[in-house]
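Reader question, answered in our methods column.
A reader sent in the components of a multi-part assembly and asked whether the whole thing could be modeled at once rather than chain by chain. We filled in our standard form and ran it. Here is what they sent:
COMPLEX SIZE: two components
ENTRIES:
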Amino acid sequence: MITPLLAFGRFEVGRLVRSWRFLVITVGFPVSFYMLFLGNQSAGGIVDGTVPWRVYLMVTMCSFGSLVAGLTAGGARLSAERASGWARQLRVTPIPAWSYVVTKVSASMLVILPVIALVDAVGAAFGGVDLSIGSWLGLTVLLWATSLPFALLGVLIGFLVNAETAFPVVTALMFVLGYFGGLFNPLASMPGALQLVARTLPSFNNAALGLAFLDGRGPGLEHWFVLVMYVVVLALAIMLKHRAEESRGLA
Amino acid sequence: MIARTLTLNKPRQRGAARPALRFEGVTHRYGARVAVEELSFEVANGETVALLGPNGAGKSTTISLLLGLLRPFRGVVEVLGTAPRKAVAQGRVGAMLQTGSGSGLPPGVRVRATLELARRLYPRPAPFDVTVERAGIGALLDRQTHRLSGGQVQSVRFALAIAGDPELVFLDEPTAAMDVAGRRSFWHMIRQFGREGRTVLFATHHLHEADQIADRVVVVNHGRVVADGPGAMLKAAVAARQVRFVCDHPNRQVFDALEGVTDVEVHGKGVTLSSLDADATVKALVGRRVAFSDLEVTGAGLEDAFVALTEDNGDAMHRSA
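And here is the structure of the entire assembly that came back:
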């Protein structure tokens, strides 16, 4: 059972990293945004809590990278693949029905990690970020583990809409969740109502957990709560959709 | 080549009496529409059987039920002596499903990687080279899956279907997107696979294919079995040959009494005899010294048989294999 699933997972990750489109989007977007924002910010100052803006920027760009990678790994790729009939072909192989969804989400998670590491590297090289090894590792693992909602969201879109629709939907979500999640502007600079909206978004809470970890503000339970809620709701939605298709003999 | 053939897993013998698959009184509906109704048929181990019927006859539903992709509302579906899903999970079944406009292959990957993955999903896969050889895809291995012609896609999909060295293979309209040459080589491949002792069930609405490839043809229409038997028997069931000639003084009684004749039509001087045995009928014509000219014998073929079987009094034609 394990060996076929590992083979399937490796196959999926291999397909992702061999896709030029995927690489250009997931590497290009976060890195170019990061460089752009770096150039725009006036040096010095503290944006939120006790974290210097250079660190703040890197953390939010890590979140943006996870968001982009998670949405793109699922999204249009997944819809196109399901439309091709490949997903259905897998249903007549010995691997269980749930393994399709689980493998897709796992593959998304696997490709999110190097994107976060890449933004870390940009931060260390160009962003003026200097952290202890422990902080780097802790931050990266924390941001990665809590990027699960992005991976699930990407897969859900792949299940809900066709390939032509999925692409604009994914692009819109990237910028909506990025902007309203305070990844492009510090939350403090946003109007009060928008700050409330931000607090309900997975993008904001993902970055906020990283920031809370760095400035030692504590475990950030409210952020965990929001993220876990997203995981539960998105996973449930994917399961229901998958089940419904299965019972109609479609998936 | 010989050494390679010897390494193949032999399909496990499950006792000769046990059918490879069994459909008993199966009914399935999509909402109010009945797709399959009280459908019953069996396929023996090692048989190559065609499921023949017009579009919408219930062929795809039947195959989905056999793979456990759908559950029957009523009736029993048994595959290799067990439940369909179990047979699939055990890796003993392979299938090529209909994919509509899609290729059924994962985009953005080479054929080789796709086949390697397919093999790893099964507990007892056939050796890589054997599957490549069986499906004739040696030249396609380094191609991207989205850069294949219709026929090539089907060959690759066939390779995926048999990668696990299954005892039983389902093919749903496998030649739908293929040209004539592609079809011929595809069916040649299926024949070979069947000769290795595998059970093959394929759905088609190409009468010629069913007749040429299958040991047995199960004709379905409106979700029911209309006829079941060897292609030749189906033809016989509806008088497979027509003997036409011109005769100055046609005599119905004489023609009717000729060997093999099942029906006589006379229009002026033109006579058309339907015959179960055209050779015998023509010999009898000569023997009776009937003065005829412009003799013509045409095979009604499965086409006519099919039309006759599916259009009307289908149930009256029902035969058991």
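What stands out: The interface with chain B takes residues 3-4, 7-8, 11, 14-15, 18-19, 80-81, 83-86, 88-96, 246, 249 of chain A (CB under 8 Å). The two ends of chain A are 20 Å apart (CA to CA).
Send us your own complexes using the same form.
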